[in-house]
Amino acid sequence: MPTFVYMTRCDGCGHCVDICPSDIMHIDKKLRRAYNIEPNMCWECYSCVKACPHQAIDVRGYADFAPLGHSVRVIRDEEKGTIAWRIKFRNGKKDMELLAPITTKPWGSATPDLGKVPAPGKEMRDSQLLFNEPKYIRMDEGGLHTLESNGLEIKKGVQY
Amino acid sequence: MFTSNPFAALSVDISPAMMQGYIVLMVLLVMGGTILDMMHKKSAQYFFENAKKAKKSAKRSVSGGEKAAIAASVLANEVLTSGEFKNPRRRLSHLLTMYGFIIFAATTAIMIFGYSAPGTATPSILPTLWHIGALMLAIGGYWFWFFIRVDVSAEGLPWFRFERADLFIVSLLATSTFALIWSFTGGGLTLSFALFILASTVLFGGVYWSKFAHMFFKPAAAHQKKITKADGSRENLPPDYDLTDPEVQRKFPDIPMYMGKNPPNMGLCIKAEKPQHY
Question: How many Cβ atoms from other residues are within 10 Å of residue B70's Cβ?
Answer without folding.
Answer: 19
